[in-house]
Amino acid sequence: MLIAFATSAYAHAVTPGDAGYIQEIFGVHIISFIYLGAKHMITGYDHILFLLGVVFFLYHMKDVAIYVSIFAVGHSVTMIAGVWFGWGINAYIIDAIIGLSVVYKALDNLGLYQKWLGFQPNTKAATLIFGLFHGTGLASKILDYQLSEDGLLANLLAFNVGVEVGQLLALFVILIVMGYWRRTPNFMRQASVANIIVVGLGLLLTYQQIAGYIAST
Amino acid sequence: MNNAPKPNIEDLPTPTQLRRSTIIASLMAVAIGVMVYLPAEYGTDPTGVGSILGLTEMGEIKQQLAAEAAADEALHGNDDSSSLMNDIFGLFVGAAHAQEAWQDEITFTLAPGASTEIKATMEEGATMNYAWVARGGRINFDLHAHADGEEVTYDRGRGQTSGDGSFQTPFAGDHGWFWRNRDDADITVILQLRGDYSEIVRSE
Hints:
The complex is a heterodimer of chains A (about 220) and B (about 200).
Chain A: H1 17-24, H2 30-43, H3 45-55, H4 61-84, H5 91-109, H6 112-117, H7 123-145, H8 152-182, H9 187-216
Helix pairs in contact in A: 2-8, 3-5, 3-8, 4-7, 4-8, 5-7, 5-9
Chain B: H1 15-42, H2 49-53, H3 55-76, E1 104-110, E2 115-122, E3 127-135, E4 139-147, E5 150-160, E6 162-168, E7 173-180, E8 187-195, E9 199-203
Antiparallel strand pairs in B: 1-8, 2-7, 2-9, 3-6, 3-8, 4-5, 4-7
């Protein structure tokens, strides 16, 4: 147990926060990594926005479970494989694609693909494919954390469990809010407006990432 | 303008169910806030659950790092002291040097969570050879220097029990190790040095 710290002004590079903590520890820390995974998901508004889009018109628990599981499978596969094999993709590019996934789903909810393309693209396939991209984004961020090789696989799996826990907690809140909202008489009209706003937010996220990428090169 | 029909009111959760879910969610949020979030971020654990989960230690480490970063800031101003993108000059030299006599041998013990800095005052272009072993646990270290806005990281590691090598200084100043015990038992480190330095500086 750590008791008290006499902090003197050391002069070495200090990385504070989650990254700093991760860079100092080694060995297996299951609960800590579950916490960090859940925190990452709950504070990752791009993931939450996509999840909101996916369940926007789903209210049968069976459908919610199917789509959320598809998303979970997608992001688990690329997150674990991405870290394990060190597929570091530029975070700006992957986050821009994640922003576009939010745009895609909101346009889908507005029924615009049927209007523009004349058919409905497979929603399950889209959820899986974007899940794979979201997982790649998570992997890029975990690689930045520089996890110790010591206990890497166990910690990585714990982080993934944490991401799912965070997703379920977020989903619980989303479903409660949607449940109240769906019962109101003007829900369908407001749903259109809400999804148009989500399109805008998704475009904003994408724009920020592209601007960040341009600034970084 | 929507990709779904209007939901049937009888398929939706009833107001009673929604109220119950809201109460459960609120209670869970408070519980997570007190038992998980506070310990993991601030190291404060009013219920004791955070310590059982091992999250209080995370919060303490984060607070400690934040305090050190602030102290660094005060000492050096804004010299990007949290950058990991430092030049790495760590060149490991083989065991050929090990037969030569060491100039200094420094032994110190760190309790869990404790840290110390041991540095050598050196001119630009000077060389240092070193070897160290840790007993009782595995230690984290950062072998570096910075002076007047310049900085260099020669090597850093965590969970190590020994190391040896040499480095050549790109600028004059105090060059050496920041050591921290992140293990759960006392660690004794024996550090041996040989090189062109005028004195050993140690700060607790």
